[in-house]
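Dear colleagues,

As part of the handover before I leave the project, I'm documenting each prediction I ran so the next person doesn't have to rerun anything. This entry is a single chain, and its sequence is reproduced below.
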Amino acid sequence: MFSSTNDYLIKFSEIVLFCLCPLVFFIPRGAVVVLAIVGLLGWISQGLKPLSLLKNPVSVTILALIAWAGLSSLWAPIPADSLRLSLRLMAFLLLGVGWASWIQSRSSSDLSVLKRRLFYGIVLALTLIFIDVLLGNPWQQFAQKSSAKAFVPLVLTLSLAIWPCLSLVSGKLKNCLGMAFVIGILLTIDSDTAVVAIVCGAVAYLSYHLLPRFTEKSLNLGTLFLILGLPWLLSGLLTDSFIKDFNQSVRSFSYIHRLYIWQFVSHKITEKSLIGQGGDSSRAALVGGEEKVWSTINKAGEDVPIHSKAISLHPHNLPLQIWLELGAVGAFIMAALSYFLLRGINRYSVKDAAIIVGFFAAASLTFLVNLGCWQSWWLATLVLIMPLLYASPKTPLASNLDI
């Protein structure tokens, strides 16, 4: 009876993973639904076993971040936003450990099947993108959205989902050719971030194969520097004259707008650099609601001012957002989290460790230039994919992260 139930649960999880990427084609934030399903599956099937994963350093660090975000409601401009953020992060953590516990209980053959189903879903999602482009973008017209708004969540999801699937293929060349094929499809969408993320991940992936220790240490130190030092670097670099000179070479409205946002945020951080403005406060009028008029040059060489709030929803940069909202305390917690996620990957085979490094580099690039750190669909995607990377038949997942 137990064996039969277990088989049904495995089949169900295969179907859910297969549906992840195609679902995001139609419902951009569908990853949240998928995480809720598989997270509850883990708790129902594993009982209290997922609680053991709350003891590893990664979970403890996330709990510290959640606690600090909740505490920041005491000084946040909108306390309810900070409290809602901490509750949302706690929900993702609990669903994540439920899903991770389920993955940990799977055999090597089960893991391969789950990754293969995810791969088939990626192929279907890429086919849907190709068909939409071939037919003149009927889905975009139906949804009444631009290419970027319609498909950015999907292409960014694909930029993460491909990494567990690389373990199914033997040979660095085949994996790189596969990533090149994915990039070719993604280039039809107005999203530079996904393409650059995959390229950065591929560079890190190949670098780890050639120089594993150097790559691991470089990525660790580079991430720590970016999280702890990027705001101070940008505050000195992003002057008005620098942005205008850059605009002479790169006449992209979105790029220049983002530089102006980063300039504002890097200076705003100094107001409360220790404790921050409060969790999820970037959207608050008192923090980023100031109306700005920034100068920019369009592709025709004409001066076109940008009329915008100082911060449009979020800074589009994880280190800046962490420093702005949670201050130095939050930044050090985030730095510790990145450290624990990468530390100890030498326990894996070179191929598996290279895949983790590639995934980490791709996700980090996206966090640095595009998304806000609290976007639910993105966090859900990370939580769904990471257990597939860290799970190892030889070493329990709890040990993999208990480093």
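Confidence is low (pLDDT under 50) at residues 393-400. DSSP finds 17 helices and two strands in the chain.

All the best with the project,
I.
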